[in-house]
Amino acid sequence: MSTIAVGGLNRTAALYQSVIGKKVIMAVTGFILSGFVLGHMIGNLQVFAGPEKLNAYGAFLQSLGGALWAARIVLLASVGLHITMAVQLTMLKLEARPQPYVKKTALVSTYAARTMIWSGPIVGAFLVYHLLHFTTGQAHPDFKPGDVYANVITGFRNPAVSLFYMVANILLAFHLYHGVWSMFQSLGVAHPRYTPLLKRVAQTFGIVVGLGNVAMPMAVLTGILSL
Ligand code: HEM
C-alpha cells in the first residue's frame, strides 16, 4: 500500500476516533434517517385516502426490487452507525466526567436534549417491534401479506398497540427536535444569528412528524379509519 494511501487511512481513523468525527457521522446518518421518517410518514398518510391508495403505494415500493433493497441497506447501515456513535459518544462523555455535575446546568439544556439517552433506545426498540408488526407480520395476529391497509387498521384496533405507537412517536418527535438541532451544530450550519430560526426548523420537523404519525393510530381508535 502506498504511503499516501496509508496516510489517508490514518487520517480517516483519526477522524473516526475524534469526537467531532463521531458527531459528523451521527449528523449525516441522522439526516438520512430523518429524511426516511418524513417520507415514510407522508407515504403512510395515504391511509386516509383509502385502501386502494395505500395498497398501491405498498405494491409500488415492493416493485422497486433492487432499489428497495439498496435503500434498506443504506437505512440499516445508518441505524447501525447512528447507534454505535451514540454509545461511543456517551462513553467518552462519561470517561471525561465520571462524577456527574453536582448542580445540573439545566438552563441551557432542553427536555428533549436530556432525554436523548433513553428516547433513542425506546425508538430503537419500537423499530424492531414495528418491523415484526407491519413488515414481516410475526408480531401481528391478523397479518395479511400485501394488504397494508388491513394490517394497519387491524393492528391499531388493539389499544395497547396503538398506545405504544403513540408514546414511541411522541418520543421520536422529541428525539428529532433535539437531533435535528444537534445536526445543524455538528455540520457547522449553526450561527448565533440563525439559532432561533434553526431551533424553529428542528421543532417544526419534530412536531410535524409526531402529529402525522400519532394521527394514524388515533384515527383507528376513534373509528375515523376502519375496514
Ligand atoms: C404510525 C406510524 C407508522 C405507521 C402507520 C407505519 C406503517 C408502516 C407499514 C404499513 C410498513 C410496511 C410497509 C409494507 O410492507 O409495504 C412499515 C414499514 C417500515 N416502517 Fe413504518 N410506520 C410508522 C412509523 C414508523 C417510524 C416512526 C419508523 C422509524 C423510526 C418506521 C420505520 C419503518 C421501516 C424501517 C419499515 C420497513 C420498510 C421496508 O424495508 O420495507 N415506521 N411502516
Brief synopsis:
It contains 9 helices and no strands.
Describe this structure in words.
It is a single chain. The protein is mainly α and 227 residues long. The longest helix is centred in the middle third of the chain and has 31 residues. The chain has one domain: 3 helical TM bundles of succinate and fumarate reductases (Up-down Bundle). It is globular and about 60 Å long. Helix 1 packs across helix 2, helix 2 crosses helix 8 and helix 6 packs across helix 8. Protoporphyrin IX containing FE (HEM) binds next to helix 2, helix 3, helix 4, helix 6 and helix 7.
Number of strands: 0
The class by helix and strand makeup works out as mainly alpha
Identify the bound ligands: protoporphyrin IX containing FE
Shape, please? globular
User: What's the gyration radius in Å?
Assistant: 20 Å
Instruction: State the end-to-end CA separation.
Output: 63 Å
Beta percentage is under 5%
Poorly predicted ranges: none
